Every structure is written in structure tokens, then in C-alpha cells.
Amino acid sequence: MEHTKSGPSSWPELADVVPVPQDDGPSPVVSIAYRDDFREVMDYFRALYLTGERSPRALRLTAEAIELNPGNYTVWHFRRLILESLDFDLLEEMKFVEKIAECNPKNYQIWHHKRWLAEKLGPGIANKEHEFTMKILAIDAKNYHAWSHRQWVLQALGGWETELEYCDHLLKEDVFNNSAWNQRYFVITRSPFLGGLAAMRDSEVDYTIEAILANAQNESPWRYLKGLYKGENNLLVEDERISAVCFKVLKNDWTCVFALSLLLDLLCTGLQPSDELRSTLETIRSSHPETADDDPAAAVCCILQKCDPLRVNYWSWFKDTLSQIS
Amino acid sequence: MDPSPQSTPPTGDDPAAAADPDLPRLTVTQVEQMKVEARVGDIYRSLFGAAPNTKSIMLELWRDQHIEYLTPGLRHMGPAFHVLDANRPWLCYWMVHPLALLDEALDDDLENDIIDFLARCQDKDGGYSGGPGQLPHLATTYAAVNTLVTIGSERALSSINRGNLYNFMLQMKDVSGAFRMHDGGEIDVRASYTAISVASLVNILDFKLAKGVGDYIARCQTYEGGIAGEPYAEAHGGYTFCGLAALILLNEAEKVDLPSLIGWVAFRQGVECGFQGRTNKLVDGCYSFWQGAAIAFTQKLITIVDKQLKSSYSCKRPSGEDACSTSSYGCTAKKSSSAVDYAKFGFDFIQQSNQIGPLFHNIALQQYILLCSQVLEGGLRDKPGKNRDHYHSCYCLSGLAVSQYSAMTDTGSCPLPQHVLGPYSNLLEPIHPLYNVVLDKYHTAYEFFSEE
Ligand SMILES: [Zn+2]
Prior knowledge:
The structure holds two protein chains of two kinds. Chain A folds into four domains: about 1-90, no CATH class; about 100-160, no CATH class; about 165-230, no CATH class; about 250-325, no CATH class. Chain A starts with about 30 loop residues before the first strand and ends with a helix. Chain A is elongated. Helices cover about 70% and strands about 0% of the residues of chain A. Chain A is mainly α. Chain A has helices at about 35-50, 55-70, 75-85, 90-105, 110-120, 125-140, 145-155, 165-175, 180-190, 195-215, 220-225, 235-240, 240-250, 255-270, 275-285, 295-305, 310-325; one strand at about 30. In chain B, strand 4 and strand 5 (about 435-440) form a beta hairpin. By secondary structure, chain B is mainly α. The model of chain B is unreliable at about 1-20 and about 315-335 (pLDDT under 50). A two-stranded antiparallel sheet of chain B has the order 2-3. A two-stranded antiparallel ribbon of chain B has the order 4-5. Chain B is about 50% helix and about 0% strand. Chain B is globular, with a radius of gyration of 22 Å. The longest helix of chain B has 21 residues, at about 30-50. In chain B, helix 4 packs antiparallel against helix 5 (about 90-100), helix 7 (about 140-150) runs parallel beside helix 10 and helix 18 (about 360-375) runs antiparallel to helix 19 (about 390-405). The chains are: A mainly alpha, B mainly alpha. At the A-B interface, strand 1, helix 1, helix 3, helix 5 and helix 7 of A face helix 2, strand 1, helix 5, helix 6 and helix 14 of B. Zinc ion binds near residues 286 and 382 of chain B. Chain B: Its cofactor is Zn(2+). Chain B: InterPro entries: FTB, PGGT1B-like, Prenyltrans, Terpenoid_cyclase/PrenylTrfase.
């Protein structure tokens, strides 16, 4: 059906409908100066919404209302009721919502509607959904809604096979993309094809260390590295690659806050101070005597207080806490 | 967290194309970050170079301008705001709350008209919708109730139909324990927070509403330490606030790993002095509240934090025991009875003094809000180069209030001048940060609803 751009008052199929104005009361507040076309569409929408009419003309009206304001969750909700009763072609509906999403990629309602559709369409739609989120993420690689949708599709409908590759691709493009790191964590812990975190940990540690050494000021891989040993502090300490990367980075730049912070974690969790650690601390201490402390963890806190002034409150508190609980 | 449906189209310039082919290619994240740092750097350099007199003018909170920007919108909004047509209680809250922070009273007629308008948004079966005739929604319910509490009159408070509201909330509860935003709507941490905050504030929170929420939120804590909107999504400032505030209102803060949450939030404050919402994202003034309040909460949770730190560090020397896994000792048995007085948790929390000083840089944060978020013509914004809006005005000022009061260790007193950046007249009204309503308005509502 050709949709004319003229308002619903001129639609023949709505000739019998009496528009219902919004009841804002005698002295309204936050009163929006609606444009005439907006008011007209919403008045007709209200008329059919109130009677609960689930018809093709009501469906068409919801499309108009959504195009004018995709944030109206009531319109979307009513649209779903109509789609269900009309047994409407859901693939057509997917095209509709995707057209809206491309102009409004940060809208809760659109993504929720998409999820509802994908759930009904089932696993056959998984790859198309992944292509769509990929398209959105190509424009904004950190779009939170797109990522949530992608994760939901993976869990509910599948399509895991190439997801790790996709994460790798995004990280090659922008290794600072924390959303891609988060997705990588999701894949290695949840993918049914990879054997879970325990199976992936070893190779992931290497991958992450490489990213850290390429850019030690990138916080994402540092957090990811620690995440690989979440809940298993003892294994974190045992993996010699972890302390090694800290020392390697600190040798080049003893003020690297992420390296110091991870080193501190290691020390608190039981890392035995090695000769390398002692000599690293000794070097720093010689030029900055105020960072001297017999306890290596306390010494690292002192260094952090000095080279991370924005977090001086945090590091002071942490240092005090350490001395109290140990 | 921004519930507005407006989209922000990405800017067109391709940073990679501009880079020198001989230099390592800068990524999109790096280029965008450098642009913001340069802009903020210019502003701070002009502050440090200024004479003391100019300095103090620069650090002033432009109260009159903000009031002038916020007040007219309560009556009339331009045609462009049609995209917020399903968020009108939010518009009320985003204006009424910052005006209350500025201690600017509304005239009685306007207050009564807001009460009448929100009554038109109240569904006959409970909850508040985005506008008259729309479906009730948990987020707009939160905005409506917070607005009414901020107005604070008996007429405002008694206009809330608590019985229906309770039924609406029960209907929004999913089998998992989490809440959905509206009938058939999305389930996320925002929905859980808005439900729990409202229920606690109007004293209808009970075991039936509370059951399972804390476990759902705990599942949303990520490997980074912050809380995501849904399980496995990325740690995010808005959801971290929502999740932690809800847990505290449920007396279940021990269900998340607090040391790692604190570490994550502390690292979200960047060289611009403001907070970013996620790792490697740009600074944004609204996170002054979301992140600032979340980390300020922990100043009263130190007993739990110490306990968790002790347990995670006690397994020095590998033993193969699972003693390291955190948050395993939360006592849930104590809450299985329906006799728990849930409204007390929000009340006790605010009565309790901070156990330690702020864990973020409270002065730096005020500097970002005052110098980078304020707009000369009134209103506040995300960052330099962006336009002001009501949402950012509300949350930048809420964040300013949080940081001004964060160094206090005695609840009953006033902040010391050295903790308020700029002239002392910058001091805003204190808030109850778990609900984000002005503190004395909270107390009025608490009294009112405990007698019901
Ligand atoms: Zn913002």
C-alpha cells in the first residue's frame, strides 16, 4: 500500500474515526507545543488505542506515530498487540524496525521491539540479526543497545561460530574499544564452542599481554587480564606472565598506574617479593625517597599516591586498609 | 541512563584518514579523547593563569542563570520536545529537582498544576505513565514520585495511590525477581532500581517485591567491577548507580564485590576531572552523579568492604580452596521474614555518618562541573561543545551536591569551606543520594509515609 504523506484526517479508512485530543487539563505543565502533524497523528492514535482496535488501519497509524516519536513505548506496545492479532508478516516488521533503528540507534523501545521479533522468528534469524548489529556497530562501535541485543541473540538464537573473530577484528580496528573487550570476555566465558574460561585462559593471557605491551596506557586489556582470573586470585599469582608484564612495563615507565595497580593486587594476594620486584622498587625509591616502605605493598601504594594524584584519596584509603587488615 | 529517545548521530570526520602514515595510526577512541582533552585543557589553563579575583568568578555557580533556564520549561516546551512526549514526568523531575537543589521555591499555583498533571499520568491500576493516557512505566513512575516528594505538600504526597502502585509493581516483577519497565517491556537494572527506590520511598517495599532483585543485580556485576544493564553486558556508570543504590535499599550490598566496584568507579574519573560512564569512553557531566554518588555510597559501607577485602586477600598462598570467591557470606536468612522494615534501610543509611573521606577526587569533580559543564546562559551540559539540556542540568547539579557533601564525616553539620570549590555560596541543598531527592523533602516524605 502506498502511504501518502498527508495526515490521517485525509485517510479514507479513518473517515469514521473521531480523533481524541490529549487531556492535559485546564492548566497544563511541561506542555509541548506540538506541531500540527504530530498532534493529528496522536489524536487518531488515541482514538483507536482507547477502543483497542487491532486492525490494519490501526497498524498503519502506529507506524506514523512511531516515525514521529520512536520513544513512545505505548505505541510500540499497542503495535505488538496488533501484529499478534493480525498474524502479520514478522520479516516485514523487522524491515520496518530496522529502518527506524538506523536513524535512532540509541532508543530502548526499538531494540526491545527487535528482540521481541527475533524471539518469535527463532534461530533462523540469528545471522541476519548479527549482520544488523554489525552494521550499527560499524557506525558506533560502543553502542550499548546494539551490544546488548547482540549478546541476547547469541544466547537465545546462536551464531557464536565467528564471534571471537569479530571481537578480534574490532580490537584490531580500535584496541581501546572496551565494549569489544567486554564482548570478548562474554564469548570466551559463554560460547558453547570454546570450552569456557578455563580452556581459553592460557591463550587469552598471551593475547592480552600483547595488547598491553603495544599500549600500556590502555586500561581495557589490564582489566581484562585481571578478569581472566576472576574469583581465582591464587591462580593469578601463580601465573608468572602476570607479574612479568607488570615489571616489563614498569621498567619503561615506573609511573604506569595500571601496572602498579595490578602489581599491588598481586602483592595483596600473596605474590612473594622477588629479586626483580625488590630491585624495581629500589630504583623508584632511590629517586623518590618518600615512597620508601618496608612492606612492598605499602611501597607500591606510596608510589601510586605520588604518580596518580587524581586518585590520591583512593590510594591513601587502600594503604590504610591494608595495614589494618593484614 | 538517559531515557530520552533522541539519537546522537556520530560526527563525520574520519580520524584515521587525518593521521600521518608514518606514525602509528591513532584509533577512534584516541582521537576523540584527544579532542576533549584539548578543549578541557584550554579551559583549565585559563583558570590557572587567571588573577585570584577572576578565578573566584570563574568558579562561581551561576544560580540565577540556571533558575532562569529551568523555570519556564515547567510551563512550556518547544515543538522539538515532541521526542520526549513519553517522558513528561521526567521533564518535571529534571526541572523541579535541580530547582530544589538551588533552593528555589516554586509558586503554589505551579506546584498544584504539577500535582494535577501527574495525577493525569497516574494509571487507574497504579503507576505513572509518560503522559496522560499512556501505559504506566516504572521509570516515569520514579520521576513522578520523586517530583511529588520534592514538591512535598500533603496534597502532593497523598495524591500517590500506594495500593495501586504496589499492585502495578508486583505485575512488573519477572519470575527471575527482576523488574520489567512496563507491561511486556524490557528487563534491566534500571527497572529494578526505579521500582525499589519508589517502593522504599513511599513505604510499600516488602519481601514479595524485594525477593530475587539482589541476586539479579549481582549477576550484572562484570569482570571489570562495575554493574551492567543486563548480565554479561558492559560495566556502566548509570547501571552501577542503579544497582548499588537498589542493593543498599534492600540491605544486600554485600551481594556484589564492593572492592572491585570501588576500584572500577575510582578509575572512571579522568584527567578532565569529571567521570566517564565506561572504560575508555569520553567524560560526561551526568556521570558526576551516577559515578560520584555510587562511590560516595561506599563511604558508609566500609565495614562490608573491609570484610570482603580480608576474605579475598586471606587466601594468600595457593591452597586450591575457593575461599577467594567474593560475596559468599551475605546473610540472606535474616531477610526471609516479611517482618523486615524495608523503609528503614534508606532512612538508616542517611542517618549514618561517613566512615571515611571520599574515595574520588571531590574537588576535581566540582571543578569539571563548574568550569566545563556550566553554560553561561544557564543550564548545564555533558561537556564543552555540547548543548545544555534538562537531563544534564539535573544530574550535573546532583553530582555537584554529592561532591560538596562527600567530605563530611558528621551528618548533622555543614561542609567545611575547603570542601566546597569556589565561593561558599555555591553550596547546594543536601540530597538523599539513594533516591536523589533533596534531603529535607525526603524526611517530610518519610514521616508522611511511615504514618500511613
Ligand atoms: Zn550524559
